[in-house]
Amino acid sequence: xxxxxxxxxxxxxxxxxxxxxxxxxxxxxxxxxxxxxxxxxxxxxxxxxxxxxxxxxxxxxxxxxxxxxxxxxxxxxxxxxxxxxxxxxxxxxxxxxxxxxxxxxxxxxxxxxxxxxxxxxxxxxxxxxxxxxxxxxxxxxxxxxxxxxxxxxxxxxxxxxxxxxxxxxxxxxxxxxxxxxxxxxxxxxxxxxxxxxxxxxxxxxxxxxxxxxxxxxxxxxxxxxxxxxxxxxxxxxxxxxxxxxxxxxxxxxxxxxxxxxxxxxxxxxxxxxxxxxxxxxxxxxxxxxxxxxxxxxxxxxxxxxxxxxxxxxxxxxxxxxxxxxxxxxxxxxxxxxxxxxxxxxxxxxxxxxxxxxxxxxxxxxxxxxxxxxxxxxxxxxxxxxxxxxxxxxxxxxxxxxxxxxxxxxxxxxxxxxxxxxxxxxxxxxxxxxxxxxxxxxxxxxxxxxxxxxxxxxxxxxxxxxxxxxxxxxxxxxxxxxxxxxxxxxxxxxxxxxxxxxxxxxxxxxxxxxxxxxxxxxxxxxxxxxxxxxxxxxxxxxxxxxxxxxxxxxxxxxxxxxxxxxxxxxxxxxxxxxxxxxx
Length: 582
Description:
Helix content: 55-70%
Strand content: 5-15%
Strand order of the largest sheet: 6-5-4-3-7
Mean pLDDT: 76
Number of strands: 7
Shape: elongated
Number of helices: 14
């Protein structure tokens, strides 16, 4: 179907229709912009909701102890990701569809303006031709009337016997002139009529259909583009549906991860004091002069009854806790309030060894402190190794830097590691005392003394240049140690002169096999035993691990010939049996 054939006389109607198509595109653009604004506002409100219900920094430690709280946090994360998908819808719609619609509107306006101008030119040409035809027709009518009048005048003159021959001839000549003019006007009119008919034929069969065809193509292109854009909007939303479904699946998975049993166990682990249940209160016979003091007979603190009363009926403390509560639905109290509540059980200030806390809480606090020291020592050790490697590079290539500039930093790092190890051993001793075991620090060695990392690092730097990537040992020099190794535990002589190591227990506390085997190890580098308590090993040698590194850089091993001793931890690769159980 062609507009040029079917709508040959509807030029103005077609012009109005194409303008309505452009108006619809502009309205469609406003619709998409409003849709994007709604999506962005919805995403913003969701993210704001997530932010309002996330735990505060000071409450995160307590927030992560219960599955219902942790899983709710995961739901918030999934909701945050879901909000991001609505932002993606808005961004893609703005960056793709709206931009394409605006380009389409510009192209349509330009094309419509051009088509209307072409149509106007074609119509003006036809109007000019019709005007010329009308003018030639009028000239012909005028000339025809004048020729008729001249003919009548001649006939009258020729019939009038009173006129002279000359006057009749003059009238005849005038008639001939007018007839000739009439014939010329007639020929001009005929020629113009033929030309106008050709213009009109071309106008309605070629020129205007071409203009109509251009406008029809423009309109069909607009409709196809709108169709494509509507589908594109749907595809943009469909593309995020898998991610939204993933977020919803994450919420469902989070709900499945909530465990009442685990949360009840977490409450026990968090608040269990470790004190025994108080025994029956004995009868006090007032007739006896002596007063029986049984307040601490079973190991319960003297103020345990008072503290138990306080935890149940102390309204002031409960009100204070409620005021300090926050977080998710107001169910969390601050960590400081929790600590104060535990300290309030004993009514004392916090001590270094956490002895003011209940036994279970004390053990947890000591383990946490020891783990913090281990992480700090590992970080400082890694930093030290980096500085040593950098120094080796500077020694091998002085153009890159001065190796002496790192000596002070290396020494400060060594002192810091010594201090951290001493602090860690102190807290390990607190923990060992709680469990009734000998202090790990006392088992390994009494102190680092002159063999500390700081002093040994100076000896290493003065003795030789290290090879990058491989630990350095000063072989066969007793009482002098490497940059990373304090002195290993030494053997001592008992009263009978027998050679007994610090880890030997002649009292019979251990069986004949000594330390149990807790894993295996393989030597990465050869090592010559230059100190008491250490054993030599060759590269690739397989050995049994008897005791892990306690933070001083030495591991106790047993060789296949049943000889035992310490080797540098960084010289071996260990595999512990408890890893297999996990």
